[in-house]
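Table S2 (text version). Query chain:
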Amino acid sequence: MNTEKLVSEIIEGRRLERDEGLHTLIHFFESESLDIFTEGADKLRKHFIGERVNLCAIVAGKSGNCGENCKFCAQSAHNPTGCEVHKLMEYDEIYAEARSDEEAGVDRFAIVISGRKPSGEDFMKLLEIYRKLRDNLKISLCASLGFLSQEQFNALYAAGVTNYHNNIETSRSYFEKICTTHSFDDKVANILRAKKAGLNVCSGGIIGMGESFGDRIDMAFDLAELEIKSIPINVLLPIKGTPLESIQNLSEEEILRTIAAFRFINPEADIRMAAGRILIKDNGKKAFESGISSTITGNMLTTTGSTIERDISMLKSMGR
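Corresponding structure-token output:
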């Protein structure tokens, strides 16, 4: 397999299939020269996405005390991390965040809440918040609220939400090693309900949780089969108090190889840099030359990210 030939074939319409030789693909993705591999991925990014970078900012609308047992998460009540706990924020606080992000040049604003799903009272409050944001701002609205019913997804869409975030986290085969209070199939069913309501789904996962490179490739194919068009890649930054606190950070090369592989498998998607960009030097610049076409910016949930101003300055200097 030759990178240049594969890039040309993908541009001409070929799409990699999971059953065409997964071991061959994994070997290729792991062994090809890093520079050649990432340059190929970036050529695909340029062809399918172009030079515009979509910027997304998030606010922790409700934090901590989550009943799910995800091993990576600082907000799980199962993990003694000392995470800040607060109830659902009021509209004025959320509006101030969203307006500031919009004025700074951010394209999308997401409210993220902890927990399996919002209470009935909190959900009704969130609907009212989204209606007000829709009426008072131009920024695109996203929600990350956990597991919702079809009726709730329909209501979110009617309130002005256009995007829904729900990561599948990792491969199907590795999922139970990370979480047992809900399943991979629960995630997929939730994504399908969101899509049925007319929402664009943002779904990706976390790398560096002890999974194999093959697990990451499997996850990329799962997302391709779900036709996900916005794929955030988070790199684990181990948090004290979680079961993964002692895991060694991924190397920059392994992160870049994973990003590039996701681009080869999902050439038309927005591959979004999320948590862990700090592990790539120069504010993650190389990631944006390896297939990344969008990013989360501003304040992160539980780990420090880059600032909006710094990101925009860097991206403009790259001609993006």
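Notes on Table S2: The mean pLDDT is 93. The first strand starts at residue 54 and ends at 62.
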